[in-house]
# Entry
Amino acid sequence: MDKHRGSRLSELFGSLGSFFRKCMFCILSMGPIPKHFAFIMDGNRRYAKKEKLEEGAGHRAGFSVLMSMLKYCYELGVTYVTIYAFSIENFKRKPDEVQNLMDLILEKIEGLLKEESLVNKYGIRVYFIGNLKLLSKPVRVAAEKVMKATTNNTKCVLLICIAYTSCDEIVQAVHESCKNKLEEIQPCNSHRSFSGRVEEVDGKSIDDDIGHSVQELFGVQTNELRATRASTFCNDVAEGVERTDKKSGVVGHGVHGSCDKWGEVQSLEASGTRDGVIPNVKSEKLLVDLSILKVVDIESHMYMSVAPNPDIVIRSSGETRLSNFLLWQTSNCLLYSPNALWPDMRLWHLVWAVLDFQRNYSYFEKKKKQF
Amino acid sequence: MDLKDEVQRVRFWIKQIGNFWLRLVWHSVHLLVRFWYLGVGVANVIESYLISSGLLKRYRSIDVGKLRYLAIVIESDDACRISKVIQLLQWLQAIGVKHLCLYDTEGVLKKSKESILAKLKNATLFEEADERDSLLDQKHMTLEFASISDGKEAVAKGGNVLFMKYLKMANSGAEQKEQIFTEANMTEALRAAGFGGPEPDLLLVYGPARCHLGFPAWRIRYTEIVHMGPLKSVRYGSLVKAIYKFTTVQQKYGKFLFRVWQSGKNMWTSDPLKKTKTRVDDFLLMIWQLWNVY
# Structure
């Protein structure tokens, strides 16, 4: 009987709470609502210590808070939520702690696939962000499965940063864009290998007739290939000039300079089909000057390029560092660090963050337009 | 037909009135928030006045040695108040900060580099100062000026340096060409491209909101980011407090470990009651004691 009454009471409080929350969100949505929230869930271990819980219980408490935070966010109308679940640095912790955390993560990832989970209730698309290669196989497989299963969800997006650090993200993005660029100028690449071989032949048998004929044969081919590369370069030159044109207004100079260089290369190509080494060196210089990689290239290869930049980053437990999280994306983003440990985070922390965001909304909008 | 129209009209008005009330509540909530921040601001002013007058003893001595590199981010619209910036720098010099980086998005400070350096005694540019200088002259201050172009564009330039290496390796047919993309190599490449500044320990933001405004991402991995309010209300006291807080967080940690070690020695012998307590309790007790000391 008592038990029954207790459950009914808690039900009543629950529905009262959700009614209250709805009213609050109604009021909040009179102002601008952030599109993208990011959370650094700090203080789980300290919470366990504070509450004298066993190791790992802090993280479990943290997870249930995360779930309610996600619910609040999506009720409020936030489209993107990013969470920092596991940093690459965390791999340096004690092995059994890492193992426990990974088990918890695996369990929760698998839980996402269940019918009644939050993901299905709100129609959330899940992305796992980070260097997934570093994860153990079961976790990676589970993550990929969830990503695949939620591809058709369009309402909201949840980005889970796992085995992630911002610096690693930048390096990986540079890596990917370098790979892409290399593929773009592949003809040049094959030509290089040709000319490399020619050099070798040249060095070994400089007076050999056969050697010369080989060189000539390849020379013709390299010329053709060079022409294809020329066109790629031209495109890059044009792009580069356009950019300088917009930024500093030295159009004439830029065009002139690149034309000069281009002329130089061409004349060298014309004169030096036989000694294919010199043009190579020259064109390398040209490459440096032109700066083949651009910010846009790198940005498009970021893991986080699937979502717009975050509007608020919330780091719990009063820490004021970003700890290698979304450093690139937070140029115009409010950083909020409440003193509560992550498992102590409540609705009002979130509400306060939104109020803070609304206070500074016009300032950030102005900043975003500038850059 | 008439009834339907009437119902629709009533609905419309109810919605309008509801919206009106919600908007009113929203505005009053924001008014309260504004009052709250006003109160916080007043408290800060009083506190910083007390600090600068020397009434609060603990702020009198700061161990600036812990702060190896300081970064200051200033909102570009405010950065044109050069006199305020110079005032700030003079205070920092008085506190004893040796190396700092001044950042604003648009590069306003970069442009007025010369006039700032001219107004400060014993200040050189970071790029020009070599190690010999800083070792010889303790009063010397090195300044670095940065803007948004030192952030993402710098990474692109560093990326190009790596790309050249990559291309070379691809040409020579090296198998390990993918392995050059490491964080260490990236740092090296950034240095080669001329963006090899150190990572600041503390970053003070002078602007309307707490945000690093595009400070070079590569350099703020573990930097403490502290919001100081707008530049026009820059105060010596709040500056001292921020730096003091940073140094004591570091210090507290060190002292804390020392206490743990000390009390660990006699924890089990001196007080029999303590035996029953868990270690966690002792930790908390010590934190509480430390809190009281400060």
